[in-house]
């Protein structure tokens, strides 16, 4: 930092909130990694099971889904073993939900920090998206274990498979992260202004779950409800997850492109409203 | 040379009243009123508060500037704007260099993480690269004096250790501009001294420091220049000594300490001191190293006092006696004093280092002690130009000041 610097920071009211200062973010890349590390350590530091908790949640959810939706309600899983079906959906869905929820809390959980020191605030939601990848990786290991079991030790193994397309999975995650961070930031900006909205978030997440083909395949959606699912940019992404990992799913190019466009729009809109709020947020807490 | 910090007409407005989140209903109502052409601004304008008004000044590279002013003068708001935590409502500011702000030490410490990890995390939050921190790690740990606990979660630290570690990280930042807000108000005296020393080093390395403090002696020790803010406006800007003197003159209270209610007094009670006041003789109300001091004591009794004797004793914080002003020793008190009255005692220049002094008062009727109040009042001695250099030793190192001259053998023989 001691290098003679000839740059100039101009502080003025109503700074443009459209521009994204990438160089400032890059400057703080070390902080990004340290925050990821902090999140991970702090989340599991004092628990007996540690990171294993990342497995317990999807496992329990999968068992409940298998019982309630598979056995009781008899909802189809596209001919796939229910455990694999739900585990794969939850891979993407959980990552999405955690990213939305945690980035929505950016202002409220970091108010103390934001009051005292300046750094590019976007570092926080970015670190959220990154540190959630750790949980995802643990879940993926769980999924992999079950995948191998079903593939090689059960007759159902003949019904699903994995192709080279699995290599596209990281790209898919990028889209999920964009939707998650984008909508999280929009919620963060709105809750900073209207506290009422923090009660709405869990509701939104709940409804969103049912509008996403997590517990049912897209093929089971009745034609007259297709539009509701089609509006949801996460729907094709979850369906795509199953397609990439299990070789089953209905992929419509149009819907998928819509998802891509929606992800980019949500992210930009999120960053814009976030930066607009960030400027004066501290005066209102 | 271009100023490293430059402010042009910086203003900052806060909304008073229902601070915080608006509710959707409020917003709808406001919008509705606006749409109907009602003037909603009248209501808002009343609760506006200008924390800073049209503030302009420039700081040159290498300057150490103290920001002083009473609470609410706008000092902290200014630092917040300069450190980009909040935005000004109007005006422009230019920061030409890397800046780091210490508005509070330990920002971003995570209680569950050990000291070691918190050093990295906190350093990164303050804008350091991991590489830099690694290079200075040992230095930071040594400065903080918590070597043995570096792998213990900071939540198990004592508050002193916590603060020391936090300041150690901050002290090893090497920005071009350091913005500091009263961080020295923490820790014990020895550590505070160390912190001040470190900040002095930073200043001597040619970095620019903007320092907010309520401690005039720290400001005088560290800064060559001071800026006085009041109600968000710039009231004075100049050499530290002058600005500090102006400030103290304007703020020193004309407070008379009432003693009637003091129950912790000794003596037979046949005469009681009811109030006292300490003030500088020439300097207005405040007392500085070369001030002459005036003590004024009011007393009352049920009958005139024969052979009255007043005794004022001045102590320092270690309870070491500094001065004893005895009316019997110098005279000036008439043989018989009225039952109700006021006496004053004016001293010569007190020649004391900056710091707090405590005052005991006693009143005798002949040889009998009528009234005695320990720590009846206290007063602060502020630094001034006792020596022409403007540098005076700290209270921890000396109590009294004495003029002296140095010479060498040259020219003598």
Structure description:
The complex is a heterodimer of chains A (285) and B (413). Chain A has 285 residues and is mostly helical. Chain A is built from eleven helices and one strand, in the order βααααααααααα. The longest helix of chain A has 31 residues, at 123-153. The radius of gyration of chain A is 21 Å and the shape is globular. Chain A starts with 8 loop residues before the first strand and ends in a 7-residue tail after the last helix. Chain B is of the alpha+beta class and 413 residues long. Chain B has ten helices and 21 strands. Chain B has a six-stranded mixed sheet, with helices on both faces. In chain B, strands 11, 13, 16, 17, 20 and 21 form a six-stranded mixed sheet that branches. Chains A and B meet through β1, α2 and α5 of A and α3, β4, β5 and α4 of B. β1 (9-11) of chain A pairs antiparallel with β4 of chain B.
Salient structural properties:
heterodimer, A: about 280 residues, mainly alpha, about 65% helix, disordered N terminus, B: about 425 residues, alpha+beta, six-stranded mixed beta sheet, 21 strands
Radius of gyration of chain A: 21 Å
Strand content of chain B: 25-35%
Question: Which stretches of chain B are low in confidence, meaning pLDDT under 50 for 5 or more residues running?
Answer: 40-46
How far the N terminus sits from the C terminus of chain B, by CA atoms, comes to 48 Å
Overall geometric form of chain B? globular
Q: How large is the share of residues in beta strands of chain A? A: under 5%
Number of strands of chain A: 1
Oligomer: heterodimer
Tally of contiguous helical segments of chain A:
11
**What is the percent of helical residues of chain A?**
55-70%
Summed up, the helix count of chain B is 10
Kindly name the structural category of chain B.
alpha+beta
Task: Give the overall average pLDDT of chain A.
Answer: 86
For the largest interface, the chains and their residue counts are: A-B, 45 and 53 residues
Helix content of chain B: 25-40%
Strand order of the largest sheet of chain B: 5-6-7-3-8-9
Residue windows where pLDDT falls under 50 for at least 5 positions of chain A = 1-5
């Amino acid at each position: 930092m001691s290098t003679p610097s000839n740059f100039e920071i101009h502080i003025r009211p109503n700074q443009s909130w459209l521009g994204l200062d990438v160089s400032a973010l890059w400057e703080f890349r070390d902080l990004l990694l340290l925050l990821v590390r902090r999140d991970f350590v702090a989340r599991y530091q004092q628990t007996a099971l540690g990171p294993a908790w990342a497995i317990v949640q999807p496992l329990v959810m999968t068992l409940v889904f298998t019982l309630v939706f598979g056995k009781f309600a008899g909802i189809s899983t596209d001919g796939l073993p229910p455990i694999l079906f739900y585990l794969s959906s939850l891979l993407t869905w959980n990552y999405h939900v955690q990213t939305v929820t945690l980035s929505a809390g950016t202002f409220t959980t970091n108010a103390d920090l934001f009051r005292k020191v300046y750094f590019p605030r976007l570092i926080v939601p970015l670190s959220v998206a990154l540190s959630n990848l750790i949980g995802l990786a643990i879940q993926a290991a769980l999924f992999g274990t079950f995948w191998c079991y079903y593939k090689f030790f059960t007759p159902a193994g003949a019904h699903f498979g994995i192709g080279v397309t699995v290599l596209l999975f990281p790209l898919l995650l990028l889209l999920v992260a964009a939707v998650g961070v984008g909508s999280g930031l929009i919620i963060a900006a709105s809750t900073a202004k209207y506290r009422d909205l923090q009660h709405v978030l869990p509701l939104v997440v709940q409804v969103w779950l049912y509008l996403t083909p997590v517990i049912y395949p897209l093929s089971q959606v009745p034609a007259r409800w297709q539009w509701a699912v089609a509006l949801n940019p996460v729907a094709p992404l979850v369906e795509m997850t199953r397609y990439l990992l299990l070789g089953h799913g209905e992929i419509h190019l149009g819907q998928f492109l819509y998802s891509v466009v929606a992800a980019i729009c949500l992210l930009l809109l999120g960053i814009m409203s976030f930066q607009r709020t960030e400027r004066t947020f501290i005066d209102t807490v | 040379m271009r100023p490293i910090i430059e402010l042009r007409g910086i203003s900052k407005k806060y909304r008073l009243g229902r601070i915080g989140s608006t509710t959707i209903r409020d917003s709808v109502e406001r919008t509705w009123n606006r749409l109907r052409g009602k003037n909603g601004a009248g209501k808002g304008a009343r609760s506006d508060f200008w924390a800073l008004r049209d503030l302009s000044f420039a700081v040159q590279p290498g300057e150490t500037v103290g920001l002083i002013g009473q609470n609410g003068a706008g000092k902290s708001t200014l630092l917040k704007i300069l450190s980009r935590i909040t935005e000004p409502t109007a005006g422009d500011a230019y920061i030409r260099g890397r800046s780091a702000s210490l508005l509070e030490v330990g920002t971003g410490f995570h209680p569950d993480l050990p000291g070691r990890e918190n050093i990295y995390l906190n350093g990164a939050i303050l804008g350091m690269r991991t590489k830099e921190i690694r290079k200075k790690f040992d230095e930071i740990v040594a400065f903080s004096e918590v070597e043995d606990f570096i792998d213990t979660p900071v939540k198990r630290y004592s508050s002193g250790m916590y603060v020391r570690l936090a300041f150690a990280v901050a002290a090893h930042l090497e920005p071009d501009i350091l913005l500091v807000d009263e961080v020295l108000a923490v820790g014990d005296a020895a550590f505070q001294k160390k912190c001040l020393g470190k900040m002095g080093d930073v200043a001597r390395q040619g970095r620019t420091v903007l320092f907010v403090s309520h401690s005039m002696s720290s400001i005088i020790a560290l800064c060559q220049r001071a800026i006085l803010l009041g109600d968000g406006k710039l009231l004075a800007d100049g050499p530290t000594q002058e600005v500090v003197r102006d400030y103290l003159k304007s703020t020193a209270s004309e407070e008379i300490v009432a003693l009637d209610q003091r129950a912790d007094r000794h003596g037979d009670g046949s005469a009681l001191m009811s109030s006292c006041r300490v003030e500088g003789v020439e300097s207005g109300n405040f007392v500085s190293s070369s001030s002459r001091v005036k003590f004024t004591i009011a007393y009352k009794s049920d009958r005139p006092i024969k052979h009255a004797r007043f005794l004022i004793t001045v102590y320092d914080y270690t309870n070491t006696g500094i001065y004893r002003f005895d009316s019997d020793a110098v005279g000036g008190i008439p043989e018989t004093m009225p039952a109700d009255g006021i006496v004053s005692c004016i001293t010569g220049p007190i020649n004391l280092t900056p710091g707090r002094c405590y005052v005991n008062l006693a009143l005798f009727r002949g040889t009998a002690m009528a009234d005695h109040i320990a720590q009846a009042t206290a007063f602060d001695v502020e630094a001034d130009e006792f020596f022409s250099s403007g540098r005076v030793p700290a209270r921890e190192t000396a109590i009294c000041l004495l003029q002296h001259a140095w010479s060498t053998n040259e020219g003598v023989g």
